[in-house]
Amino acid sequence: MALWSGRFTEGADAFTQQFGASLPVDEKLYAQDIAGSVAHGQMLAAQGVISAEDASAIVEGLVAIKADIEGGTLVFDVQQSEDVHMAIESELTTRIGDAGARLHTGRSRNDQVVTDTRLYAKQRASDLMDANLALRAALLETAEKHFDMILPGYTHLQHAQPVLLSHHLLAYVWMLTRDFERLAAARAAADANPLGSAALAGTTYPLDRFATTTALGFARPIPNSLDAVSDRDFLLDLMYACSVSSLHLSRLAEELILWSTSEFGFITMADSYATGSSIMPQKKNPDFAELIRGKTGRVVGDLVALMMTLKSLPLAYNKDLQEDKEGAMDAADTLEDCYRCAAGMVATMTVHPEAMMAQAQKGYLAATDVADYLAKKGMPFRQAHEVVGHLVLLCDKRGCDLEDLALDDFKAESDLCEADIADCLNLQAIVEARTTYGGTAPVAVRQQLEEAQRAYAAD
Ligand code: ARG
């Protein structure tokens, strides 16, 4: 029997019952729902709205229900209960009678559901922050282990200037450090208590919203009951944080996919992070990195879906809001799995420094440094750029590198060139010269690594 059977004469239709139900999704919120009900019941007793005996029966009943759900002996049926709130409340009333029927005094499912969802969002944000840290740890360790390795740095996916592998990996660590901050901000946004807003307007019972705020570990009560029951922007914040981090992971995944091709050969994925082919015996495919890249679409899609659901909704609660949870849960679950997969992949991949170095020798990575050499000797930089362009053309014609040119070849372009030009052609020296804060010189990257480690330790 439905909780609103008083006003209805016909029974439920099986299809609309199913269509209107959120139980398959929100049953995951059982623990939050029970915590909310315990806090509400105890507060009702403290305020003299229900008796202390009723409150203890409620608490005991809810604790037992929780144990039965977790033990698998209590399974809810969508034809009986539309959502987890009704399922638990009906079960409680079946078990303890009138005390259970008093629990919903001064409460609506409208404030109940968003209380549960906020508790859930806080928990998932924290879980994601942990998973984010685990991935950062894997990247930091890999950066430390291969600190001095040089690879080509790219712009437009063309060889640009040599960089340290540690520098390259740290770029992702910083993206993830900001993602952590976004998750923390989403957690803080969820950290406000809607309970006591009732259906939309508050209630005539003397509820103590500050008491349930403390009992449930919220930072503050939400000051407007209409706002409290009708907005889900805290889920948008969480899904935005998930979306940005997914985008970052897709970039990392894409690079690992490229790096593991025969063309690059910079890394080999561990067997457990690759799959074979059912027909081509030689294949080792980076499926898991591809999935991380691909799942970004889901996460961003989840964000956009809820944005569209919220658009133009009049105040206060509308059933449209029931659509909020599935995507938010999916976004958090997906990102958590992707973090975990990426951390394992990074920690277990084999790095091939000689392949990176060999590529760094190609593509005239020293060109900027030769131009800088001339500019530092007084030639205007634009002119120096032109001169080095000619030298690169010469190399192209001869099929050689800048390093293979004789001093006379350099001198033919500019008499500013001396024997010390050799220092600009050496990858190690090129890297070592970029000592600006945030640059690729080992001294600068060491400082950066320590900064990233400090941020990691502080998070
Ligand atoms: N299952 C509903 C949801 O997830 C709970 C709130 C229902 N409130 C209502 N007035 N129908 O949003």
UniProtKB/TrEMBL annotation:
<dbReference type="InterPro" id="IPR022761">
    <property type="entry name" value="Fumarate_lyase_N"/>
</dbReference>
<comment type="pathway">
    <text>Amino-acid biosynthesis; L-arginine biosynthesis; L-arginine from L-ornithine and carbamoyl phosphate: step 3/3.</text>
</comment>
<dbReference type="Pfam" id="PF14698">
    <property type="entry name" value="ASL_C2"/>
</dbReference>
<dbReference type="InterPro" id="IPR009049">
    <property type="entry name" value="Argininosuccinate_lyase"/>
</dbReference>
<dbReference type="GO" id="GO:0005829">
    <property type="term" value="C:cytosol"/>
</dbReference>
<dbReference type="Pfam" id="PF00206">
    <property type="entry name" value="Lyase_1"/>
</dbReference>
<dbReference type="InterPro" id="IPR000362">
    <property type="entry name" value="Fumarate_lyase_fam"/>
</dbReference>
<dbReference type="GO" id="GO:0042450">
    <property type="term" value="P:L-arginine biosynthetic process via ornithine"/>
</dbReference>
<keyword id="KW-0963">Cytoplasm</keyword>
<feature type="domain" description="Argininosuccinate lyase C-terminal">
    <location>
        <begin position="364"/>
        <end position="432"/>
    </location>
</feature>
<keyword id="KW-0456">Lyase</keyword>
<comment type="similarity">
    <text>Belongs to the lyase 1 family. Argininosuccinate lyase subfamily.</text>
</comment>
<protein>
    <recommendedName>
        <fullName>Argininosuccinate lyase</fullName>
        <ecNumber>4.3.2.1</ecNumber>
    </recommendedName>
</protein>
<keyword id="KW-0028">Amino-acid biosynthesis</keyword>
<dbReference type="InterPro" id="IPR008948">
    <property type="entry name" value="L-Aspartase-like"/>
</dbReference>
<dbReference type="InterPro" id="IPR024083">
    <property type="entry name" value="Fumarase/histidase_N"/>
</dbReference>
<keyword id="KW-0055">Arginine biosynthesis</keyword>
<dbReference type="InterPro" id="IPR029419">
    <property type="entry name" value="Arg_succ_lyase_C"/>
</dbReference>
<feature type="domain" description="Fumarate lyase N-terminal">
    <location>
        <begin position="6"/>
        <end position="301"/>
    </location>
</feature>
<dbReference type="InterPro" id="IPR020557">
    <property type="entry name" value="Fumarate_lyase_CS"/>
</dbReference>
<dbReference type="GO" id="GO:0004056">
    <property type="term" value="F:argininosuccinate lyase activity"/>
</dbReference>
